[in-house]
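Subject: Predicted fold for TLC domain containing 4b, 270 residues

User T.R. writes:
Posting the sequence so we have a shared reference for the thread.
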Amino acid sequence: METRELTVVAGSFVGFQLLFSVASPRLSSVITPGYGRLPSSKLTEWNSRLVSTVHALIVGLFCLYILWFDDAVNANPVWGDPSLVKLNVAITCGYLVYDLVLLACNWSTMGDSFFVCHHLAALYAYGYVLTRGVLPYFANFRLISELSTPFVNQRWFYEALKYPRSHRLVVLNGVAMSVVFFLVRIAVMPSYWASVFATFGTQDFERLGLAAQVAWITSCIALDILNTIWMYKITRGCYKVLTGGGGRKVKGGSEASSSSDGKHVNNHTD
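User M.O. replies:
I've generated the C-alpha coordinates; pasting them so everyone works from the same file.
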Protein backbone atom coordinates (compact mmCIF):
# COMPACT_ATOMS: atom_id res chain seq x y z
CA MET A 1 0.00 0.00 0.00
CA GLU A 2 1.39 3.39 -0.98
CA THR A 3 1.88 6.21 1.51
CA ARG A 4 -0.99 8.22 0.01
CA GLU A 5 -3.54 5.44 0.43
CA LEU A 6 -2.31 4.61 3.94
CA THR A 7 -2.62 8.28 4.88
CA VAL A 8 -6.17 8.40 3.53
CA VAL A 9 -7.14 5.26 5.47
CA ALA A 10 -5.74 6.69 8.70
CA GLY A 11 -7.20 10.14 8.03
CA SER A 12 -10.62 8.68 7.31
CA PHE A 13 -10.51 6.64 10.50
CA VAL A 14 -9.70 9.73 12.58
CA GLY A 15 -12.16 11.92 10.71
CA PHE A 16 -15.06 9.54 11.13
CA GLN A 17 -14.20 9.10 14.81
CA LEU A 18 -14.31 12.88 15.31
CA LEU A 19 -17.59 13.07 13.42
CA PHE A 20 -19.00 10.37 15.70
CA SER A 21 -17.79 11.78 19.02
CA VAL A 22 -17.87 15.54 18.42
CA ALA A 23 -19.77 16.73 15.35
CA SER A 24 -22.74 14.35 15.38
CA PRO A 25 -23.85 15.01 19.00
CA ARG A 26 -23.71 18.77 18.51
CA LEU A 27 -25.36 18.80 15.11
CA SER A 28 -28.06 16.30 16.08
CA SER A 29 -28.95 18.23 19.24
CA VAL A 30 -29.55 21.38 17.19
CA ILE A 31 -31.50 19.73 14.36
CA THR A 32 -33.52 17.18 16.33
CA PRO A 33 -34.78 18.01 19.86
CA GLY A 34 -35.68 14.36 20.39
CA TYR A 35 -32.01 13.40 20.16
CA GLY A 36 -31.33 14.50 23.73
CA ARG A 37 -34.15 12.33 25.09
CA LEU A 38 -32.75 9.09 23.68
CA PRO A 39 -31.12 6.52 26.01
CA SER A 40 -27.33 6.32 25.89
CA SER A 41 -27.31 3.11 23.84
CA LYS A 42 -29.42 4.71 21.14
CA LEU A 43 -27.34 7.87 21.19
CA THR A 44 -24.33 5.75 20.28
CA GLU A 45 -26.10 4.08 17.39
CA TRP A 46 -27.59 7.40 16.27
CA ASN A 47 -24.12 8.95 16.00
CA SER A 48 -22.85 5.81 14.28
CA ARG A 49 -25.59 5.97 11.66
CA LEU A 50 -25.06 9.67 11.02
CA VAL A 51 -21.40 8.90 10.31
CA SER A 52 -22.53 6.04 8.08
CA THR A 53 -24.76 8.40 6.09
CA VAL A 54 -21.96 10.94 5.61
CA HIS A 55 -19.59 8.19 4.47
CA ALA A 56 -22.19 6.79 2.09
CA LEU A 57 -22.81 10.15 0.44
CA ILE A 58 -19.09 10.86 -0.01
CA VAL A 59 -18.21 7.43 -1.37
CA GLY A 60 -21.41 6.88 -3.36
CA LEU A 61 -21.19 10.18 -5.24
CA PHE A 62 -17.45 9.73 -5.84
CA CYS A 63 -18.23 6.25 -7.15
CA LEU A 64 -20.70 7.62 -9.71
CA TYR A 65 -18.17 10.22 -10.84
CA ILE A 66 -15.57 7.50 -11.47
CA LEU A 67 -18.10 5.29 -13.23
CA TRP A 68 -19.13 8.09 -15.58
CA PHE A 69 -15.86 9.91 -16.19
CA ASP A 70 -12.86 7.66 -15.47
CA ASP A 71 -12.19 6.27 -18.95
CA ALA A 72 -9.07 4.34 -17.94
CA VAL A 73 -10.92 2.27 -15.37
CA ASN A 74 -13.89 1.61 -17.64
CA ALA A 75 -11.62 0.63 -20.57
CA ASN A 76 -9.75 -2.01 -18.57
CA PRO A 77 -11.79 -3.21 -15.57
CA VAL A 78 -9.03 -5.48 -14.26
CA TRP A 79 -5.85 -3.44 -14.72
CA GLY A 80 -7.03 0.12 -15.51
CA ASP A 81 -5.46 3.12 -13.76
CA PRO A 82 -6.72 2.71 -10.18
CA SER A 83 -5.72 6.12 -8.78
CA LEU A 84 -9.19 7.53 -8.11
CA VAL A 85 -10.65 4.18 -7.18
CA LYS A 86 -7.88 3.56 -4.63
CA LEU A 87 -8.65 6.93 -3.06
CA ASN A 88 -12.33 6.04 -2.74
CA VAL A 89 -11.56 2.56 -1.45
CA ALA A 90 -9.10 3.99 1.10
CA ILE A 91 -11.85 6.23 2.48
CA THR A 92 -14.10 3.20 2.78
CA CYS A 93 -11.42 1.07 4.46
CA GLY A 94 -10.86 3.81 7.03
CA TYR A 95 -14.58 3.83 7.69
CA LEU A 96 -14.78 0.05 7.98
CA VAL A 97 -11.93 -0.08 10.50
CA TYR A 98 -13.55 2.73 12.52
CA ASP A 99 -16.89 0.87 12.49
CA LEU A 100 -15.35 -2.46 13.51
CA VAL A 101 -13.74 -0.74 16.50
CA LEU A 102 -17.06 0.89 17.37
CA LEU A 103 -18.92 -2.43 17.15
CA ALA A 104 -16.32 -4.13 19.33
CA CYS A 105 -16.59 -1.40 21.97
CA ASN A 106 -20.41 -1.53 21.97
CA TRP A 107 -21.06 -5.18 21.19
CA SER A 108 -23.79 -5.64 23.80
CA THR A 109 -26.00 -3.00 22.16
CA MET A 110 -24.79 -2.81 18.55
CA GLY A 111 -23.03 -6.11 17.90
CA ASP A 112 -24.11 -7.95 14.77
CA SER A 113 -22.28 -10.93 13.26
CA PHE A 114 -23.62 -10.03 9.79
CA PHE A 115 -21.93 -6.64 10.04
CA VAL A 116 -18.62 -8.20 11.07
CA CYS A 117 -18.75 -10.69 8.19
CA HIS A 118 -19.67 -7.90 5.78
CA HIS A 119 -16.82 -5.66 6.95
CA LEU A 120 -14.17 -8.38 6.94
CA ALA A 121 -15.18 -9.61 3.48
CA ALA A 122 -15.03 -6.05 2.14
CA LEU A 123 -11.65 -5.31 3.76
CA TYR A 124 -10.26 -8.60 2.46
CA ALA A 125 -11.22 -7.75 -1.12
CA TYR A 126 -10.37 -4.04 -0.96
CA GLY A 127 -6.94 -4.89 0.42
CA TYR A 128 -5.98 -6.20 -3.00
CA VAL A 129 -7.15 -3.00 -4.64
CA LEU A 130 -5.02 -0.87 -2.31
CA THR A 131 -1.90 -3.04 -2.32
CA ARG A 132 -1.84 -4.18 -5.97
CA GLY A 133 -4.12 -1.73 -7.76
CA VAL A 134 -6.13 -4.53 -9.35
CA LEU A 135 -9.84 -4.77 -10.25
CA PRO A 136 -10.54 -1.01 -10.03
CA TYR A 137 -13.75 -1.16 -12.05
CA PHE A 138 -15.23 -3.96 -9.96
CA ALA A 139 -14.21 -2.37 -6.65
CA ASN A 140 -15.80 0.90 -7.70
CA PHE A 141 -18.93 -0.81 -9.00
CA ARG A 142 -19.41 -2.43 -5.60
CA LEU A 143 -19.45 0.96 -3.90
CA ILE A 144 -22.62 1.90 -5.79
CA SER A 145 -24.42 0.00 -3.05
CA GLU A 146 -23.65 2.85 -0.64
CA LEU A 147 -26.38 4.94 -2.26
CA SER A 148 -28.99 2.92 -0.37
CA THR A 149 -27.43 3.53 3.04
CA PRO A 150 -28.93 6.99 3.80
CA PHE A 151 -32.45 5.58 3.41
CA VAL A 152 -31.67 2.62 5.68
CA ASN A 153 -30.32 4.95 8.33
CA GLN A 154 -33.22 7.37 8.00
CA ARG A 155 -35.60 4.51 8.70
CA TRP A 156 -33.78 3.86 11.96
CA PHE A 157 -33.83 7.58 12.89
CA TYR A 158 -37.61 7.69 12.48
CA GLU A 159 -37.96 4.54 14.55
CA ALA A 160 -35.71 5.88 17.32
CA LEU A 161 -37.78 9.08 17.47
CA LYS A 162 -40.93 6.91 17.75
CA TYR A 163 -42.58 8.09 14.55
CA PRO A 164 -45.64 5.93 13.83
CA ARG A 165 -44.94 3.48 11.04
CA SER A 166 -48.01 4.81 9.30
CA HIS A 167 -46.56 8.34 9.25
CA ARG A 168 -46.27 9.70 5.72
CA LEU A 169 -42.54 10.38 5.99
CA VAL A 170 -41.88 6.89 7.33
CA VAL A 171 -43.88 5.24 4.55
CA LEU A 172 -42.25 7.33 1.81
CA ASN A 173 -38.77 6.66 3.14
CA GLY A 174 -39.54 2.96 3.47
CA VAL A 175 -40.68 2.68 -0.12
CA ALA A 176 -37.69 4.71 -1.34
CA MET A 177 -35.37 2.56 0.75
CA SER A 178 -36.77 -0.65 -0.72
CA VAL A 179 -36.57 0.61 -4.29
CA VAL A 180 -33.08 2.08 -4.03
CA PHE A 181 -31.72 -0.90 -2.08
CA PHE A 182 -33.06 -3.22 -4.78
CA LEU A 183 -31.67 -1.10 -7.63
CA VAL A 184 -28.13 -0.65 -6.29
CA ARG A 185 -27.63 -4.00 -4.55
CA ILE A 186 -29.85 -6.60 -6.22
CA ALA A 187 -30.77 -5.42 -9.73
CA VAL A 188 -27.10 -4.76 -10.56
CA MET A 189 -26.07 -8.34 -9.79
CA PRO A 190 -26.66 -9.74 -13.34
CA SER A 191 -24.70 -6.88 -14.92
CA TYR A 192 -21.90 -7.18 -12.38
CA TRP A 193 -21.52 -10.93 -12.71
CA ALA A 194 -21.74 -10.74 -16.51
CA SER A 195 -18.72 -8.41 -16.40
CA VAL A 196 -16.96 -10.79 -14.02
CA PHE A 197 -17.57 -13.84 -16.22
CA ALA A 198 -16.39 -11.87 -19.27
CA THR A 199 -12.90 -11.67 -17.73
CA PHE A 200 -12.58 -15.41 -17.15
CA GLY A 201 -9.93 -17.00 -19.33
CA THR A 202 -8.46 -13.69 -20.42
CA GLN A 203 -4.81 -12.74 -19.99
CA ASP A 204 -5.78 -9.97 -17.59
CA PHE A 205 -7.61 -12.47 -15.39
CA GLU A 206 -4.68 -14.89 -15.38
CA ARG A 207 -2.29 -12.09 -14.36
CA LEU A 208 -4.24 -11.65 -11.13
CA GLY A 209 -3.01 -14.93 -9.70
CA LEU A 210 -4.99 -17.49 -7.73
CA ALA A 211 -4.98 -15.60 -4.41
CA ALA A 212 -6.50 -12.43 -5.88
CA GLN A 213 -8.98 -14.42 -7.94
CA VAL A 214 -10.20 -16.32 -4.87
CA ALA A 215 -10.39 -13.14 -2.77
CA TRP A 216 -12.38 -11.38 -5.47
CA ILE A 217 -14.90 -14.12 -6.23
CA THR A 218 -15.47 -15.41 -2.68
CA SER A 219 -15.93 -11.94 -1.19
CA CYS A 220 -18.41 -11.01 -3.93
CA ILE A 221 -20.42 -14.17 -3.32
CA ALA A 222 -20.47 -13.53 0.44
CA LEU A 223 -21.56 -9.90 0.00
CA ASP A 224 -24.30 -10.81 -2.45
CA ILE A 225 -25.67 -13.44 -0.08
CA LEU A 226 -25.77 -10.86 2.72
CA ASN A 227 -27.40 -8.28 0.45
CA THR A 228 -30.06 -10.81 -0.54
CA ILE A 229 -30.81 -11.55 3.12
CA TRP A 230 -31.08 -7.83 3.89
CA MET A 231 -33.29 -7.27 0.84
CA TYR A 232 -35.65 -9.93 2.13
CA LYS A 233 -35.83 -8.25 5.54
CA ILE A 234 -36.43 -4.83 4.00
CA THR A 235 -39.13 -6.15 1.67
CA ARG A 236 -40.92 -7.86 4.54
CA GLY A 237 -40.82 -4.70 6.65
CA CYS A 238 -42.03 -2.52 3.77
CA TYR A 239 -44.88 -4.93 3.06
CA LYS A 240 -46.04 -4.79 6.68
CA VAL A 241 -46.09 -1.00 6.63
CA LEU A 242 -47.93 -0.75 3.32
CA THR A 243 -50.53 -3.31 4.38
CA GLY A 244 -51.09 -1.67 7.77
CA GLY A 245 -49.26 -4.30 9.79
CA GLY A 246 -46.90 -1.81 11.41
CA GLY A 247 -49.03 1.22 12.05
CA ARG A 248 -48.34 1.81 15.74
CA LYS A 249 -45.49 3.67 17.34
CA VAL A 250 -42.41 1.71 18.25
CA LYS A 251 -42.36 1.31 22.03
CA GLY A 252 -39.96 -0.38 24.39
CA GLY A 253 -41.26 -3.91 24.05
CA SER A 254 -41.46 -3.81 20.28
CA GLU A 255 -37.72 -3.31 19.78
CA ALA A 256 -37.06 -7.02 19.50
CA SER A 257 -39.75 -7.66 16.95
CA SER A 258 -38.63 -4.71 14.86
CA SER A 259 -35.32 -6.39 14.21
CA SER A 260 -37.05 -8.98 12.06
CA ASP A 261 -38.47 -6.16 9.96
CA GLY A 262 -35.04 -4.87 9.12
CA LYS A 263 -33.88 -2.98 12.23
CA HIS A 264 -30.45 -4.47 11.78
CA VAL A 265 -30.34 -4.04 8.04
CA ASN A 266 -26.86 -3.30 6.79
CA ASN A 267 -26.02 0.39 6.93
CA HIS A 268 -22.47 -0.13 5.75
CA THR A 269 -20.48 -0.62 2.63
CA ASP A 270 -19.88 -3.31 0.07
